[in-house]
């Protein structure tokens, strides 16, 4: 950690020193700092949608708004208490007050670089941590959700801050959680700079806590990954997820309750319990994504969280472009198959709620895609291509 801290501090110091010199560079046009937060995504429950409406997205919204008692009788995220469209409406209203938001992280100009910041929590996955007693990895999830967002701009994470709140501080429990945060910072090569522990009697249920995290990274202005040069014919490369990651758990818990199984039961078709499968920590993509960026040809990156492919991939595209996804180009993990079958969830709802086994999507040139797949240094799949039109279609 000391080496990482020194390297990160040196890099930040250089950027600050550069910022003191007069510069004609203007702030990155599509990102604006807003007070103390960037509103890059309202947790996994309220994904920020692109302002560009698409026919495919609209179709998914209609499906997600149907009750589970409607056609097909399948569960939806809205049935589980999470209204993605309500969150999107709130974001649209905020955008009127603070134009320019919409990326996975907020960019702040600093000399010849940008500081890139992101914030998030782990949602109702915490409920499963309380039920399973697995607290050692939830901190990894917390770090992952923020650093995976800021690396989509090509930023190297510098430091992380955490917020831990509980009614009565259980030191042993808090230590387990923070150990996971330290592990997540090590995986993403950043420094745990500090945090806040809030003890609020009577505010949370006994033995429960809440978490949020904040990450800051840095990228040279000329190296920002912003999607502006994406063109039809570019390739979509998918990096595999470790499971559900840290979004969609309100629906997962509803499916679990309906299935009649417990977290201690075996995952049907899998070799682990449902609790172990669902609590698998979120993959931290920082090192592999930065490595792929360094080799060239990466034009855009989408972190697949709330909103799935349907809402997240279009966020990195210029107007007039959409995604064509090859449905059978990767193996959908057993866990997602069970969730869909047990909840009788429609395909469109699954694709808008979960990552379906792909946690990060890179938009790259044809040449870069061949290199990535042939080298095999990072497990990756060619999952689709960029096409004229808008939205995401699955074939």
List keywords for this structure.
six-stranded mixed sheet, alpha+beta, five-stranded mixed sheet, disordered N terminus
What would you say this structure looks like, in words?
With 395 residues, the protein is α+β, with helices and mostly antiparallel strands. The protein is built from 13 helices and 11 strands. The strands form 2 sheets. It has a 6-stranded mixed sheet.
What's the helix and strand layout?
Layout (H helix, E strand, L loop, with lengths): L1 H19 L34 H11 L18 H14 L8 E5 L2 E8 L4 H8 L5 H13 L5 E11 L4 H17 L3 E9 L9 E12 L14 E6 L8 H11 L14 H5 L7 H9 L3 E6 L4 H5 L8 E5 L8 H10 L3 H7 L4 E7 L1 H10 L5 E8 L2 E4 L1
Parallel strand pairs: 3-4, 8-11
Antiparallel strand pairs: 1-2, 2-5, 3-5, 6-9, 6-10, 7-9, 8-10
Helix pairs in contact: 5-6
Organism: Populus euphratica
Protein name: phosphoribosylformylglycinamidine cyclo-ligase
Pathway: Purine metabolism; IMP biosynthesis via de novo pathway; 5-amino-1-(5-phospho-D-ribosyl)imidazole from N(2)-formyl-N(1)-(5-phospho-D-ribosyl)glycinamide: step 2/2
Summarize the structure.
With 395 residues, the chain is α+β, with helices and mostly antiparallel strands. It is 35% helix and 21% strand. The protein has 13 helices and eleven strands.
Judged by helices, strands and strand pairing, the structural class is alpha+beta
Task: Profile the largest sheet.
Answer: 6 strands, mixed
SSE arrangement, N to C: HHHEEHHEHEEEHHHEHEHHEHEE
- N→C terminal distance: 45 Å
Helix share of residues? 25-40%
How many extended strands? 11
Query: How are strands sequenced across the largest beta sheet?
Result: 7-9-6-10-8-11
Average pLDDT level: 83
Strand-residue fraction?
15-25%
Shape: globular
Low-confidence stretches: 1-9, 14-71
Count of individual helical segments: 13
Query: How many whole angstroms does the radius of gyration measure?
Result: 20 Å
